[in-house]
Amino acid sequence: MSDTNESAPSESAPSESAQSDSAPSDSTLSFVQLFTDGSCRGNPGPGGWAYILRHPATGTEKEASGGEADSTNNRMELQAIIEGLAVLTTRTEVEIITDSTYAAKGSHEWMPKWKSNDWRRREKGSWKPVKNEDLWRRLDELLAQHDIRFTMVRGHTGHTENERCDELAVEAAIKIQQG
Q: Is 21 among the domain residues?
């Protein structure tokens, strides 16, 4: 069960990314930036996710957060991206800005191999199910609907939007934890 909280746009300065993995872009598409983060109080434990969706051309922003009672940090990182992409109603050029190597590498490096192996991965010489397969499958559907580029940032280093997403995700996890 997921608890969701949406709030008004926040004031934040444009960010600088540490590393970018570019995808081809279609200049006729609208461009948005999706800043995301996940948090967990214990791993597993009560978790929170958050995103900021920014449309630079209009200056509009949307913040949202939510959580689950029993989750992991990796699940919350994925859920933040899923929730942000799910609100987009048309094909869009999306720059996903995250501090999660798991989400970024998983989306463009690991997922194609998992899919070709029927959502399995090699571990110690044998096939194992992909962890968080339900979220990876949903994310795969959403990624296919847009032109996506991932930009990695370092977490907890003063990146304005990443810090805000972290704050929202932690608040959501605490709210779930407190009931």
A: yes
